[in-house]
Amino acid sequence: MPSIVLHDQAKTYTKKRPEVAPGYTVRVHERIREGEKERVQIFEGLIISVHKGHTATDCTFTVRRIASSVGVERIFSLHSPTIEKIEVKKVAKVRRAKLFFLRGRTGKSARMSERFTNADEFQIAVDVPAETQPVEETPSEETVETPAEAVTAEAALDAPVAEATAADETPAA
Questions:
Q1: Domain count, the chain
Q2: What pLDDT does 167 receive?
Q3: What pLDDT digit, counting tens, does each position of 86-132 carry?
Q4: Any idea what the CATH number is for the domain that residue 110 is in?
Q5: Where are the beta strands (DSSP E) in the chain?
Q6: Which of 60, 100, 109, 146 has the largest count of CB atoms under 10 Å?
């Protein structure tokens, strides 16, 4: 009984996030509070592991990057309220669920080959909401039609219908 209640409560705390998987290069925008000030800090790196927890809110992912020739790894909770957004930059071709072997590698051997995806596959991975994309509302000059053109367009649409009904009413000999 308590686990059912926990699963139901966890569903209310989940947020809409893009799909994350090992091999994705992501930028994690995290809110940092320093004293009274609050700012957004960006951590960009390669996802080396994803842990799918017991409930939806237990999901975590590990991001690794090289800073000043030292490997830095951070574990983020996927549905944490401190994470503002997650941007997927690249999708690499991987054959493992955990990329811990990259810890011992440096330089070119630590690079992952990029998976050549079409725009649809990458858009699914990125999962950009439609309301964030700019929509142009001003019509261009070519699409503006005058009232006289609108009347002739309506008459042209009605004319074939009238001819078809006249042809149906003629008696067959």
A1: 1
A2: 52
A3: 999 888 888 888 988 888 877 777 777 666 566 666 665 666 555 44
A4: 2.30.30.790
A5: 24-34, 37-51, 60-67, 70-77, 83-91
A6: 60
